[in-house]
Structures are given as C-alpha cells and as structure tokens.
Amino acid sequence: MSIISIGAVLWDIFDNARHIGGAPFNFSAHATRLGHRVWFVSAVGRDELAKVTLRHIRELGLDTRYIRTVGDAPTGTVRVFLQDGQPSFTINRPAAYDFLALSDQELETLSAAKPRWIYFGTLEQTSRQVRGQTRRIIAANPQAQTLYDINLRKDCYTPALVKELLGETSVLKINDEEVRAVLEMLGEKPLPLADFCAVFARRFGWRVVCVTRGADGCALWSEGRYVESPGFRVKVADTVGSGDAFAAALLHGLEQGWPLEKTADFANRLGALVASRSGAIPPWTMDELPRIGSNAT
Hints:
This protein has 297 residues and is of the alpha/beta class.
C-alpha cells in the first residue's frame, strides 16, 4: 500500500530529552514499520537541527525527497509537559513545516505512483500554504482515499477549517473529547458515539469513523456496522505518538480488509505498546503485539 502523508516533522522537547515527532511524521514512521510505502511531504529549516532531523528520518526508513528546506522558518519544535503520562504542548510557530510545497514535477511524480491513501491532520492546515498544497495533492489523486486524524490542538484550528476538512474525509479518526468539540462546532446536541458515527458519516460521506477512548479502547464504525473494542492495561511511559501509531495500525487493518473487531484490536494493541515506551516512535516489532497486557475493563 502506498500513502502520501502531509504535515509536520518536529522535535518534542521534554525536560530531560528530545524526540523527533509531529503527528504526520509519527504516523509515517509507524506505517513504514508496518510495511507500507509512505511519501512524507514536509519541510525543515536551514539550520543545524534540520541535519539531525533528516538523518533520523532516513534511519527510520523514510524517503526525504519531498521534504523541502526553507530559509525563512526554523525546523519545528514543541515543548511537551507531562502529568501522569499525559502530555500538554506549547507549539512553536511559524515553523518550516508551515511552508511545505511540491513542485509541479514532484506532484506529477507522486501522482504517477497512484497512492491509495492521503493522510492529513488539522494543525498544519491552518497554514494557508499547507492548505493549498493539500488541496492540490487531493485533486491530483482522485483514486486515493483520505484519512483525517483530527488531532485538535489549542489555538491550532477554527470551526470553519474543521468543517471543511470533514468534507474531504473518507476515514475519520477522532477521540471522544473531540467528538464533543465537533458536535459543538456543528451546533448539535451531544450524541451517543454510535449515533455520531452514523449521522455524520451520512452527512459528510465518511466510509469509516474511529473514535479513540484512551484506556477504554476505541469504537469503530464502517458502512452501518458499529463495534467497540476494549483497551489494554499497560504501564504508561508517555502517550506522545500512541495515537499516531494507532492511526497507522487502523489504516493497515482497513487495507487488509480485516473484520472491524480485528482491526480495532490491532490498533488498540499498537497504541498501547507505544504508550508504554518513551517517545513518539520507540522501537517495537509485530511479534510483541500479541503479548500486550490484559484488556482494560
């Protein structure tokens, strides 16, 4: 399976460490580890951190040809504060990824490969340039489905933008708190998760909706069928990147044509495994997933 992933590569800065990250990059790294071909579209600055970033990207098996170098903004950084393993963020912008771009030749080359999926989130789409580039990529690849991992961050979205992106979505990944936020943006009353999935999939044309629920696992809806899958008990190191690993696993299961129950369980396992280790892209192997801790009840 081939995927175009659009958005940030940046560094998560903790009190005593720094880790390469950014939701689109994390997703790309985990999807690559699952055996998929990912073309990552982003940008870095013309600075020392960029050299380290590009080296790490290559070490994780990703192609860097569509990562632009820009001189008017630094390589992205985010300050991460942890409380009981749960992160809060200070996002430093503008950053280089706000100025990602593809030439006409690069877009033509990407599109000739007939990618099956296009991945994007919300934060980067607040950049006018990124929004325009995303529209170009979607328009040039009508055969591709889109995965929108909503990932709402404080001061990094508007209701108008979110509504627009929801209308460009084939598969929506959203957490239970974001469901409430989206319903409020749409002027709707609270709804049970199953009803949210069914009602708004019909309104926006989504094929699949996945609602993550933290330690409680996830709910997955597809074409009228709804399942809930329990989470797994693990000792949490930090949850940074666990949702991005979950998204990669979700897409993997959908692409394999697995039953919803198997897809949801697989995504829960990978998300839990990543949460049990420090950093957004810790080492892991497929052999570890069956050994993830007991279901949370």
